[in-house]
Amino acid sequence: MKATLAPSSLISLPRHKVSSLRSPSLLLQSQRPSSALMTTTTAASRGSVAVTAAATSSVEALREGIAEFYNETSGLWEEIWGDHMHHGFYDPDSSVQLSDSGHREAQIRMIEESLRFAGVTEEEKKIKRVVDVGCGIGGSSRYIASKFGAECIGITLSPVQAKRANDLATAQSLSHKVSFQVADALEQPFEDGIFDLAWSMESGEHMPDKAKFVKELVRVAAPGGRIIIVTWCHRNLSQGEEALQPWEQNLLDRICKTFYLPARCSTSDYVDLLQSLSLQDIKCADWSENVAPFWPAVIRTALTWKGLVSLLRSGMKSIKGALTMPLMIEGYKKGVIKFGIITCQKPL
To answer: Is 227 inside a domain boundary?
Structure first.
């Protein structure tokens, strides 16, 4: 199922499969939760992936679970938090009151800080085409399109999100610049090398195969184009550590099961993967302190009368998500969960 509002100058179908990227000699799935939805995509070190019927079924179940989760919860999120379905960026130790507009401003600031960190500025005027991978209801795409005058296309597994994103683009007179469709980030329906910016704001968490996720971003990025991945990670392992501690794995398992997060990795794992693909200007940062006020604010919002009524009306997936939010705070406070940005440039 695909929406039909894609700018004709932006994409060309069918996609051409890339053949030049080889599987890296590392596996970014060493910390998988033990859920029936989770799938393994190992053998990366051997350059091949054995896909069984059971694994294929698990991947499809995961896709359906993610789509259903966002079909159900996106309306609630938009009602309370607006267009941007991601963390806000705050000054460390900042205190933003619930009544303030500071939280929504912080979500805009997250976009701006991500662009700044990657060296993407208005002065460059190089951003003409953008893919928003895991676009939600399109807040980032519409913001970037307005900022740079760029053509943006977003992809999501959720038909509800794609429709709402297109409706908002029309309402904001941006449908000539942005469009949204249902598509899989691991099998993007685009030609090679057509986007000046490949943008992923908090969608990498849902990818069962991190290597394939990154290779698809690289494939669709134009030569000289930028790739920006903003994502939740687990902490980097210390020298000599082979895995997280059992209590850390248990905490992440409980979070991942609720939010359909099938494979976990660290920021350093992403960096290793990008290095294995010979990408340039690779940079990363830990922004955990900068997002610290966000989840407490989400919980306080959920506990308001409006939040509770909306939550109950939304459905069980929303309720389970709300009940899991304190675990997110625990994960951040104990340093198990990290909020990272990773960026690089595709060689010319």
So the answer is: yes
